[in-house]
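fwd from M.: "can u put these together and see what the complex looks like"

so here's what she sent:
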Amino acid sequence: MTTSPRVGLFVTCLVDAMRPQIGFATIRLLEQAGCRVEVPRRQSCCGQPGSNSGDRRSAFRIAKTVIAAFEGYDYLVAPSGSCVGQIRSYPSLLSDPDWNGRAEDLARKSFEIIGFLHDVMGWHPEGIRLDATATYHDSCSGLRELGIEEQPRALLAEIEGLKMRPLDGANVCCGFGGTFCVKYPEISTAILSEKTGNIRQTGADLLLAGDLGCLMNIAGRLHREGAATRCFHTAEVLAGMADGPAIGESGT
Amino acid sequence: MTAAQIRQGFRQRATTALNDANLKVAINRTTGTAETKRAASVGDFPEFQAARDRAAAIKDHVIANLDHYLAEFERNAIAAGAHIHWVRGASEAASIVTRICKDAGAKRVTRSKSMLGEEIGLPHALDDAGIERVETDLAEHIIQLAGERPSHIIWPAMHRTREDVAVLFQKDHHPPPVAGDAASMVASARNVLRGKFLSADVGISGANFLVADTGATCTVTNEGNAELSTTPPRVHIVTAGIEKLVPSTDHAMALLRVLVRSATGGEVTQYTTFHCGPKRQGDADGPEEMHIVLVDNGRSRMLGDEFRTMLRCIRCGACMNHCVVYRQIGGHAYGGTYPGPMGAVLTPVLDGLAKSRDLPFACTLNGRCEEVCPVRIPLKTLLKAWRFRSWDSQQEVGAMRFGLGLWGFAARRPRLYRFGTRIALPLMRLFGRDGWIIRMPFDKGWTQTRDLPRPASRSFMSQHRKYGNKGPE
Ligand code: SF4
């Protein structure tokens, strides 16, 4: 890349409210990779709560806000596969000829952070050390909509001192599913308990994933079960920010 | 599942299922094996992706030209000597079948497993008509003994463990089988069923494919019971959905390849039978009369809307075997004929959305079902399409509508949204202890079983405004 690309950071509503550190980790990584990062102020949410609940119109309107805020950048990057999946689905949501082309343009240049670092920027972690064992959960949208599978594993393998342990059923949903987890809490918990059971089986110190929704779900259950496993977003680890408090540890 | 259970709501049925430890064991055993076997068999078949594309293309072609192929099939089936009956609805279909049975003076009918038979309520209709019904598929036989409905489209009795079945057999089979010994149980079922095969007046089967250019129906089983239920009796009745058409035998075989791998992980089924008309002069065996009942029951309605791709479904069951929700609650919780992801799309078509509105919502949209579907049905998109319809037809509950409306309003006004976060975060933090919220009054769904990480004291946006890209440190 000759000139450094201008990247608009899409923060995601969960990162904004629950764990800002993931946003700063994402910025740090993008800058290390040689991007100029800006955070457009005209953003809030990608519209998933609406579209997944059936309210196409509200999702459609939020989509327009996002398109308008990000279309001036070379890339939109977000620390969440599911939000990027939603943004990439805008063209199918917008049946408005004035917006279709713009939605497609944005869809083409929207990326999940780990995939972006690995596939687009060819970035590698340097001088990061973390003496721990970790295991990785594949978040469904990142995995199936965006093909994020090898990239995080490849980058994590380059961190000195970090030992990765395979997770049984790593690509099986954790039961979060946005509003699903509060609409059908019993089913969600039954699914989740299998996930936490498998995570505990690995004996790893850390559980890593690329989406805060899944991470909050898994971390919340691990904590309720009294497990010591600590949960981080992959971006936090790659940015060397895993020495601070994990999700749910005080100090945040 | 009894009639009373059908009336219970989805949530209650799901809760019952979740509390049934035995059910969990049974489901895990079967779906676990199916998943492993499918993966192995797909791995052994390098052209699997291409075969899926071809299978989807065949189905799409037939769906787009359904009238043509139905007419061709009818012509050829009649030429082969079969009778064709066209029916619109489920009850009409069931009554035509019972009428044919009565006209044949049938006292006993053998039935080989067919989901369409379940869909049109055939077992019930036959029982009501006082005709002795013998289910010849081993799993269906178990279901019949237990007085239940199938819980899976390939393994109807998958909700029952071997141990359960042993108990059922002890009660009904003479002499009773050795408890827990699969071979002895199968042998006892075989003994019970064998005499009945030969003494039935009518045999009823479904069809996996209807072959347009020959007028033949194609049925696949692993037990050979379809052959035994349809060859010895004097009358053979086939019931099939109109979407089962394929242009030729080659096309049927192309679909069969992906069907079997996806369903059981095998390469072919043990028995693949084509029936083309009744017994002809010089034939050693076969029925004297053959009836084919072609059922619409909502299918032509799907032709014209976004659920059209659902007509590709070849009923392999892979979507349910890989579904996290199905694997927790089993098939009966879905409350319809078809369970799992495909059932969540089909049941609202068959029963109406009002009666089955939970189904498209009780899904995490993780997409594993469509990842394994051999005919690439975009199940996730179709489930979302039901959610859109539910919203658009005002079936979504008021509180949800209101809440999302508010959210949407704020989300489109980022300054208002940020103002809201600034107020909400400290309020939420009041419920926290250390880093966690253990109990929160308006969020019971979450905090009953999980803790919620305490939100940040200041949102990312406000920290970013203060510290810039470097963040707070
Ligand atoms: S929807 Fe697909 S995976 Fe599910 S039963 Fe039908 S063909 Fe099989």
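replying to her w this: Strands of chain A lie at 6-9, 36-38, 75-78, 110-112, 129-136, 160-165, 206-209, 230-233.
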